[in-house]
From TrEMBL:
GO terms for cellular component: membrane. It is a single-pass membrane protein. This is Prostaglandin F2 receptor negative regulator. Pfam families: V-set. Residues 26-118, 151-259, 270-367, 398-527 form the Ig-like domain. It is found in: Membrane. It comes from the Eukaryota. Keywords: Disulfide bond, Immunoglobulin domain, Membrane, Receptor, Repeat, Signal, Transmembrane, Transmembrane helix. The lineage of its organism: Eukaryota, Metazoa, Chordata, Craniata, Vertebrata. The keyword Transmembrane helix applies.
Amino acid sequence: SLFSYLAFCRGRVVRVPKGPLIRVTGTEVVIPCSVSDYDGPSEQNFDWEFSRETDFVRIVSTWDPTFTSEEYQKRVGLGDIKLRRSSNDAVELVIRNIQPTDQGRYKCSTPSTDATVQGNYDAEVQVKVISDGLSVSGSKARSSTSLRLSEGDSFKLRCSAVTTSPEHTHLHVTWQIKSGSTWRDILSLTHEGKFQPGPGYEERYRNGDIRLDTGANDTYRLSVSQASSVDAGAYRCLVSEWVRGADSSWQKIQEKSVEIGSVAVQRTALDVIISTSNMSVTERDSLDLTCNITTDRSGIFQAEVTWYFSASPDDTLSDAQVLLSMDRDSVVSDSTLISLSHVDRNSYRLLVRDMDVEDSGYYFCQAAVWVPLHNGSWQKVVERTSTPVSVVVAALEPDYEVFLNASKTPKFSDDPTELNCRITNAQDTKANIRFAVSWYYRQRLRSDDVVTEELLATMDADWTLLLGDRSRERTQNGEIIFSKKAADTFSLRIQWTSESDRGDYFCVISAWSRHRNNSWVKSKDVTSASVGIFWATQDYTLTVEAVKLKPFFVAGHTFEMTCKVSSKNIKTPRYSVLITAEKPLADQSNPNGTTRIISLNQDSVVRLEDWTDQTRVDGVVLEKVQENEFRYRMYQTQISDAGLYRCVVTAWSPGGGGMWREAVNGLSNPIQIAFQTSG
């Protein structure tokens, strides 16, 4: 074949499209021509000629300005026919407003720049010019349509396109929208019978919201469901006519458009208002708010309402807490303390029962309008949020009084002290109120100096005891006891009151309120009047009187004396007794002069002290006659027992923890043992 021969020789090849090229009267025709496999400079020149029958007439050349024949000089001079170089080895012959007289053969030639002549240096293509049979129009009722729609509405636009071309042509119909200065494709029915959505319209096409249907009388109907603001603009129908070329490729031979009309999409107006301004409610009461929605929407639509709570007015919607919502089917999300009811078509009531202090904050509602789609689904067309309403929940303070009294008061050191802090006249103290106590001590000063109180102990809401520095060690040792005697009574007991405990005491009863999350928050403090713990301190006095029971005796007889004790300002005293003897200075057994003989302690335990006479181990006896009287006996007295005898008495008072505390000492008058000698 020729192409095989050319390929084998590898000579110059000039190419034009395979004909015939079918074109429509009045359109612009572009015929490309290219050259390959040539020698010489890279930029090649081209000559174009035309023949209706046999002879060719020169049209235009890229290199010779005198090439154009007289027949074409005017059209070339006006630019109706021109060459447009697309590369060094290719040009396009452009014929504007082609006419039936332009039908014929067009030849593209390339002057040789080759070292040897090989290949083909020209190529021809047949151009067939047919009459314009394409007609594109809008609605027959009126030339242009103007639609005003609401968001979510549907609309349809129609155009008519028909061709009477003698050739077998196909139509390509595209609906376009113009927003601004640019036309954008919406949806096309191609010349190959395929639907092709424009950029950005793919999903709406898949969902069926945008359709293109053919109808009778060669009509092409664009259907748009669920219109939004992006659908506002001018609409046109763009129709191109296509024919299949000799090489089986599709060629567009002409294109026409008609503006069908304009569409304005009005955004759905929606106002969302809470009917109440900022408000205050009391704890445990109910909060009643109504969300009113107003819309200019007509037809079928449903509203969705959601109530939100936010601790701060600056919180975003994502930070806010959803309280309750009602969807477009009037299904309310579940809640125990909160209810949402649809009062009427435009009003939605929020009721929050058993308000808590922690519910103070900002409440607002959000509403959305939904409209139905043709496929049975629903689409949200508008959503608005109300201005938040500030709600302050005032704590419901329980009403009660506090009375402090002393059930035990000390008269002496180490006496017990017991204080009872009692809650009286309590009102509004239901199960979610709990009482706790704090105990305070304040020292008494004779001057006008201000003394701050010291915390002894405090209880929190779960009655955990927290000790102050003043009482910590004694409480841990059991010397101070804090207790809850009854539901309304707290007690402070000092087991052994010391002089440093003298002063004023008062208690503070705190009311704790339990919130819905089971946390406890202090709601009120009530302080009692103070109770003074004080007793007069006087010096201890102790008097001991010794009496000799037998005024006269001789050696070998029994010596007997008693000691009577009296005391003042000592609480329940007990006495210990020590018998001492002062011997004459001539007695060398005790150089110090005083001998401790026998003792009896406060628990009546007898002990021999410095009594060393082994022959008379049982020769001395000390016994308690009664609480304040003691008797001393010495059997078989000897001359060496002569001297002055006394009772040394110590008074003891009960101390803390069952111990005894020494109060005061006393010494009796002396009793003399003297023996008569016979002269």
